[in-house]
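Chapter review. Work through the record for Acid tolerance regulatory protein ActR before attempting the end-of-chapter questions.
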Amino acid sequence: MNDNDAPIEGDTSLLLVDDDKPFLQRLARAMEQRGFAVETADSIAAGLASVDERPPAYAVIDMRLGDGNGLDVVARLREKRPDSRVIMLTGYGNIATAVTAVKLGAVDYLAKPADADEVYAALTSNPDAKAPPPENPMSADRVRWEHIQRVYELCERNVSETARRLNMHRRTLQRILAKRAPR
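Structure tokens for Acid tolerance regulatory protein ActR:
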């Protein structure tokens, strides 16, 4: 890590924001075992309150929670503590949200289910290091799904407008959006 990207020396404060409580508890225990001082939040409101009270050196934030979007927590954390290292987690990974997360200051973006080793590696990686090529690159089905998700986000999650722009029947698009991402 270079001095500009490194959090304050010796500060191991870590905020975990996720509304999946069993996952949140498992990840919190695993990160404590790796030496982090962990604080958890199960909503956007609790995450924002935690950032306002004690901005952490590290954060792992879920993209979509019941009360809003994790990007709001990223933006607030960047205001309060620009040197923090933020990792975004999501079960709905797509390129458009990954780009937005990185523009707001996230250093990495992991798809759920991410394990503690992946999260730890992302939090502690050298920001100047080049990422290795993927072992299993995206399938053609996954690339198609990513493109549909990107257009859907650009259309502000309007199904009818997205279907029109993709030249696709609205019901077909709804079926695709209701399914999980292909591998």
